[in-house]
Fold these 3 entries.
Entry 1:
Amino acid sequence: MKDIEVITLSLIWYDCLTPKQALIAYTLKKALERLGFDIFITTRDYDYTISLLRLKGLDYVAIGSHGGASLKGKLRRSCERMLKMIDLVEKTNPRALVSFSSPDATRVAFGMGIPIINLNDSPHAEHVCRLTFSLSDYVITPRCIPLEVLKQLGRPRRGFIQYEGVDEVAWLRDYNPSPSALSRYGLRPLSYVVLRPEEQKAAYMLKVKLGFSYEDILKYILNTHKGYRIVFLPRYEDQRPQIQHPMLVMPRTAVDGPLLTRFAALVITGGGTMSREACLQGTPSISYSPHKLYVNEYLKKRGFPLYDVHKLDNIIDIIDQVLEEPARARVDTEELLKGMESPVDVVMKLIPELLETSL
């Protein structure tokens, strides 16, 4: 972590709340530097976010932590985080904020007169959208999300900007790892399954009952497909299974997620990012998120190997099908990726215009 001491006229603030946002941070930093801007990253203690920023060699300032599963806890942590942000932002004087609809950073930036560009691919996270859209100058979203859905959640001052693609293209477009890189984790291509549980403590999940647990999936694979290792990536400490098994791998710090999803036999997640990351690289993936994910629907229609499944029996059927012949289940996605845009490209087009008109 690096202390920010110097006020610069070319500083862009990026509030990074999740591992996905940490992956985009590296691409965003490089793109900003090409335009002559510096990046100032704030983050919080949540999931693998901080260790992933370290893995990518990025400087950051950590402020606060996740608010947990209660609404009161979320509100309290948000207020505490905003109070700390005010002094830090006053000291660093950023020209603009870029975030994935961070309520804390958006409120502080709005209150301090800082132009705001937010990105969003998750209209199902209604609370976050309502707290950020109307305070933003621009909100960047994939074109597959209907504008009428977005406008019901708030209208940014200058409007929505849509692009042809998904967020994950930002860090995968030029990504071409070697299978030998898996040796650092003691893994071989197609010999393991990546399992990522659902986001249990998000506001949009508090009243949702899935009818099964990620532990049911974990136990099924360990008991039925004994030749496969499972790389289990919990979001919270209390999601770590209380079992020991020689085929179960549970990293304590950040791993190279794109590398693992690239060469996995199968990726299973209760969210969306890793399922999209996997299928964009040709790896079959299952998302058991209970919410309508427009970006997943978009990728399925384009022919990427992504399955949205909501019942345990159906998940098991796909697991059996894929793990029987994992090489045959893969898809060559090189042609499918052509023409897909990165949201970072859109941000880079908007920043100079936004700063010029905000003077």
Entry 2:
Amino acid sequence: MEGFTLFDTLVLITYISLIAWIGSRFGKDQHNPEDYFLGGRKIPGWAIGLSVMATQASAITFIGAPGWGFEGGLERLVTFINVPLAMIVLILVLVPIFHRAGIYSIYELLERRFGPATRTLSALLFLIARGLATGVVLYAPALVLAVVTGWSVNLTIIIMAVLAISYTVMGGISAVIWTDVIQMFVLWLGALLSIFLLVTSLPGGWGDVMAFGAGSGMFNAIDLSFDPSVTYSLWAGLLGGFFLHVAYFGTDQSQIQRVLSSPSVVDAQRSLLIGGYLLIPQMLLFLFIGIILATYYQQHGLTPPDDLNELLPRYVVSAFPSGMAGLVIAGVFAAAMSSLDSALNSLSAVTVRDFYSRYIKPNASDAHYLKASRLATVFWGLYATLFAFFAGNLGPVIEAVNQIGSWFYGALLGTFLLAIFSHRSNARGAIAGLVVGMLSVWTVSSQLDISWLYNNTVGVTVSVTVGYFVSLTAPAPSRDQLSDVMMEEAAPDMQAVLAARADNAQVIGKEARVTRRRCIGLFAWFCIMLGMLALLQGWANG
């Protein structure tokens, strides 16, 4: 079969229409900003977890990861190997404090601890970083449309932008999460269908894939080199990847906002378990698509496209049966929508909560802020559209998104760590650490030949160090500034809430044991995943 057929188009249109209809159903239940941005704080943890997974399996992953696998096999999996450990930090430290504070935007917490200037600067950095990354996310599915339809990329960007903006404006966070649950399964179905059809097209099936992968070094996921210029060494993944994911999942409003929509800390922690267990296998799935495609191209003597982001969609529309190609491309759209809706909603939340309601229109009605939130969503959709026009010059799309975030998030994580763990840190130190931390990342990444994965490590280290010592030049903060932010204050508050909820103090110990078991399970999963990669590499090289 050649090309994208009418039946494929009908499958795709049916899916897009279904998601748009589902999203619109939630708009009528929104009466205030809390409904729009946090779903009334009553969304169950399992749904939030699947929503986060859908965002991680974005069109960036669906398109970019097969290109990674085609080019380098499993080597880049070390970027994600530390996700279970990052989730442990979030479960034990950041999420209890964020959720207990009852905030819309996590940058509100920095104002309570360090004052309005720190909050404003941090929120502004988020808007810049996430706004740029959203443009890349918009470019990825537009590229797919251009490949399968023959339209120009710019035209497809505009089409996708109109659809995404309309859907997000109508739905709010409830629509974001519940449509993501549906889209998660569509995305997995598309990925598994791709693997099945690819493998069955090979004469020797999985045997061909394993033989090619072993013979070409595709299964060499663990590079023990201590050379910091080696981008995907194990050490870059363990150290740099750890801070990358703690910073991303812990200081990016687009991730934390969904966690804040849960009814309790326990539900919020439960949502993180899903990502902790499934993100590595999910990335492995998409990398294997790339390895299978490399096997196919090698067997048929084919030349890959210049842009490896086009690798999977080009194969899908040229080789898949009619209808199945439409389903796989629908999976790409599922991935794209799950990323765009959450990004635009969080950008709107920070714009309205951290800027508009404080500096432009304070003390307005809920109806006014709800209208402003929807207008802010439109603004950020247009902003992302303009940036998407230039995203094609950024190279592989996953790396582009991660590198954009690495310029900012490490220093921002350092600021939150100062707020949570250091009694002595103050506003002067926090701002100095944040600014110097970012400058250090830009300096190191531009002047030294080291892996970009270390950017967040540099940002965190410099931000905390500079922030603490500069804080010593100004008076220590008052007790009131510490009371609802510091880590040591979290346990008593959480215990009181749990005891009141259950009317039985024994629940405190039970919840503590559950949390401990969850963290032990995540650590064991990290060890299992690392061990499996080592065994696969040993088999391939044996």
Entry 3:
Amino acid sequence: MIKFSATLLATLIAASVNAATVDLRIMETTDLHSNMMDFDYYKDTATEKFGLVRTASLINDARNEVKNSVLVDNGDLIQGSPLADYMSAKGLKAGDIHPVYKALNTLDYTVGTLGNHEFNYGLDYLKNALAGAKFPYVNANVIDARTKQPMFTPYLIKGTEVVDKDGKKTDAEDWLYWRRPATNHGLG
């Protein structure tokens, strides 16, 4: 048994030495509250404090600096501004895409999750709004009272093509694996 374990350990060490190194930039937005423009409608003036239009240029710049990136939204997206209130009052018919999702789709978000304010206008409105997203949503803590099952996809493992430091393209699932804490020497 000890000989087999030593052989297995040597094989694992050799494999990890030859493993490709991939740098991945993870970007996130949060609490956009449907503030698409850099304009404060409550004060009727332009602002430099918020607006996805400003953030979009930062996202594009950050993406252009690296080979591999993902973009995540952390929620509180569809409530909290005049646009959000207008869209809620107007409602979303089948096939309508909320303006926020038109913008996020254009920015090619990888995944999103729900904030507490996504529920302000009710589940039907939320589900109609989410139907316009061209990227998946995950949420593990909202349970359907009737079925006792998660109401939304609780997690996602997404295969993504990445480029390693040597320029070789590979799918992230080819190199993604979990390590036991004992093998993470010096990694914090």
